[in-house]
From TrEMBL:
Pfam families: LMWPc. This is protein-tyrosine-phosphatase. SUPFAM superfamilies: Phosphotyrosine protein phosphatases I. Its EC number is 3.1.3.48. Keywords: Hydrolase, Protein phosphatase. The active site is at residues 3, 9, 114. It comes from Pedobacter westerhofensis. Residues 2-139 form the Phosphotyrosine protein phosphatase I domain. The keyword Hydrolase applies. GO terms for molecular function: protein tyrosine phosphatase activity.
Amino acid sequence: MVCLGNICRSPLAEGIVRQIAADHQLDWEIASAGTGDWHVGQPADRRSIAVAKSYGYDISRQRARHFDSSMLDEYDQILVMDKNNLRDVLTLAKNDEQRRKVSLFLTENMDVTDPYYDDQLFDPVFLTIEERAKNLVKELMAKFS
Ligand code: 4NP
């Protein structure tokens, strides 16, 4: 799960997808990272931690990482929150096998809105990610099983 800062959107995606995967008894390694490195080592934004907690998810122990090209080998699927992340991740891809792993988290070419500058966006962003995560896990189960 990849976004810009790895403190708002992708930590939510990481925590939600991990919990849904665990609910399906799936032994998947779920991680998140940011295309920018400003927040490396920091916890998620307090507003993401709070909205996740309010819906029953604990993302407080996750720490921000910087996306690097080794992750294109390490992980089977790279899900990015918006089209800027898509461009930045694809720039790091070295071959078609890596490029094929990368896709937008949402369907229909939609971006997950960056909520960083607007407190009001955290709740709708959470709900958008949670809604998509349920079908996403089903799609990935079909793809990788
Ligand atoms: P995120 O949000 O990409 O969803 O983690 C942002 C977090 C931090 C910044 C931008 C977006 N920033 O500019 O520091």
